[in-house]
Each structure stands twice: as C-alpha cells, then as structure tokens.
Amino acid sequence: MRERVRLLVAACFYYSGLVKLLLWWQRRFRRHLIILNYHRAYGKHLPRQIDYLRRHYHIMHAEAALEQYFQAGKKAGKDDTGPLPLVLTFDDGYRDNYTYAFALARRLQVPITIYLIPGYLEQENCFWWLEGERLTRFARSEQVELDGRTYSLQSAEERQELAQEIDRQARNASSVAQRQAFLEKMRQALAVPVDTPIEEGSQPLTWAEVKEMAKSEWVSFGAHTMHHPLLACLEDENELQYEVGECRRVLEEHLGHPLRSFAYPVGKPEHFGKKGLEAVRAAGYAWAMTTIETTNTPQSDPYLLGRLPGDLNQHWLILASELVGLLGIFSRLRKKR
Predict the structure, then answer these.
(1) CA atoms of 187 and 244, how far apart (whole Å)
(2) CA separation for the pair 115, 93 (Å, rounded)
(3) 233 and 149 in one domain?
(4) N or C: which end of the chain has fewer CB within 10 A?
(5) Is 212 in the same domain as 298?
(6) What's the CA gap between 201 and 54, in Å, rounded?
(7) Is 288 buried (19+), middle (13-18) or exposed (0-12) by CB count in 10 A?
(8) pLDDT tens figures, 89-147
(9) Distance (Å, rounded) from C-alpha 153 to C-alpha 162?
C-alpha cells in the first residue's frame, strides 16, 4: 500500500511538470554527476527506468564521465545547461549482466559499466554473499552447530538465522582463505552436495562474455578486487595490495587496455577503511566508487565517489522524482547486501 501511495505521488509530481522544472533547475544551477549502482540486472522495471534516463540525462561510461566531469566540469559555467551526466554501474559481474543488461544496452543504445571480480570469472562458483542462503536452502542435515549454538534446519526461523550468521562470518573474514575455509566447513556440516546448482542468472560472468561485451561500444569495465573481500577486514597488507592491484593487472591483460576506475566491495567507509583507500590510490587508479548515497560535484574526492542505489523493483516515475530530490531518496530504508 505504501508503495502504491508513493507511485501516485510520484505520478502527480511528474505529470504536473514539477519533475521537469526541478530537472531544468539542476541543469542550470546545480550541475552534478549522478552514478547509479545496480548489481543484478533482471527486473521488469529496469527497461522503463533506462528508457526514462536516456531521454532526460546524458548517460556515459564511467571513465568517460569522470574524465569529462572532473576536468572540463571544473571550468563549466552556468551557461552549461545540457543534460546532466549520469553513469549506470553494475557491481560484481552477475551472468544476467550479460544476458539482460547487455541486451538492454544494445537495444536502447545506452552505455553501462560493469565492475568485475576476476577471481570468480570462469570458476562457476557461487558468490560468497549468496552462500549463506544457498547452503541453508539445500542443506541435507537436520541440524548443525556453529559457535556453540545448535540450529534446527526444520525451523524456517532458525534456518534464516543460520544463513545470516554464515553471511556475517564470511563478510568479516580476515583473509580470503579464511572465508573459503569457513564456507567449505559449513557446506560439509550441512551436507550440501558439491554439484548443487547456482540460481539462474546469479552465476559469475565468463571471460568470453566479458570480451564479447567489451567489443561493443555499450559496455565498459572497472575493477572490484580479485575475490571481493571487505578491505578493512584484511589483516595482511600484502593480501590487501594483491586484491586491489592484481585485479587491475588481470583485467587489463584480458581486455587489452588500461583501467582507471575501481569500486570498493560493499562500499561504505567502514567496509574499506583508510587502508583500503590508500591501497586503491597506490595501485594507480584515478577514481574509486563507494556506495555512499550521494551525487558528485567537481569538489568530490575522486576516491570517495558517491553512488545512488539502483532498485530493480522501482517504477520509473518514482526514480524520476527521486533523482530531482523528491520523495526523500536519502532517507529510504535500504536492504543491506
């Protein structure tokens, strides 16, 4: 019911001309760079969202937008009233970024940027943040003990609590090896078969799919670490540098051109910390994306770029209103990933 009310209000804002007026005002007096952050791509509202955005914003690849905005943008005066620049980013490299987002990009002729995790490409492994739910869903054990607590897999509530605890421990692992060992221990304890299938569309991309997209003019790529650890949790300085720097080297080797933009895993300051930021700077990246929900100005720190969360379940009318400051985009409750 609440979402229906929001849609009704958003429709009033749009068809009354208020959204168009505020969009004009932003172009004239408050020019900023909007970066939207998606992960998965399959959703009934995404085509209409992108169709609206391409008609009212200047959609660009991430590096092209950042280059233009932070160099030429500093010199732009109030006479620059063209469409506001906007970047569509997809983190992690889910298979549906190829099967769905790529197809949309070609059909609607809009550029998108995907931030990749090379350690998952070609592996056909489940992304670690999906493992808690997957392991508990396909568990064959009736109960399991973890940190002194016994969880009954017959109880939906305890199964959900176990999935959350698995996610918490994997998320806060002090190394990639520790994380993988923990997840393997839980797989064995839950008696989950090794060949348990991964949900369609949520598998990682393959190098062949990445290279096919790279040959088009519609998809560009950025770095997202080798294995997606929370950088602030890594205890070994060498592993931190490897996750950040090796990711760039591997991607450049496969794609055949330099990469200058990076996206922090999970993306809030507490997830990458000062040492993560410094590692990104030291690795030679020019820009780094966070998940801090804000837009960017020429004065923004290039290593703390804000992104607004893309919502595949959101009607385009609500998106239109939120992007011009209506409906309280910064106060919405967001499900953590």
Answers:
(1) 28
(2) 6
(3) no
(4) N
(5) yes
(6) 25
(7) buried
(8) 999 999 999 999 999 999 999 999 999 999 999 877 899 999 999 999 999 999 999 99
(9) 9
| Closest CA relative to residue 211, chosen from 64, 96, 98 | 98
Q: Determine the structural domain holding residue 109 and report its residue range.
A: 33-122+204-309
Residue with tokens 């490299």: 93
Residue type, 307: R
- State pLDDT tens for residues 166-176: 999 999 999 99
Total count of domains within the chain: 2
**Of 265, 123, 111, nearest in space to 206 by CA:** 123
Cα–Cα dist 247/331, whole Å: 34
What pLDDT score does 305 carry?
A: 98
**Are residues 210 and 261 part of one domain?**
yes
CB of 289 closer than 8 Å to CB of 305: yes
- The answer, yes or no, to whether residue 329 has pLDDT greater than 60, is no
Measure Cα distances from 275 to 120, 239, 245, 254, 320 in Å: 24, 12, 14, 28, 37
Indicate if 100 and 231 belong to the same structural domain.
Answer: yes
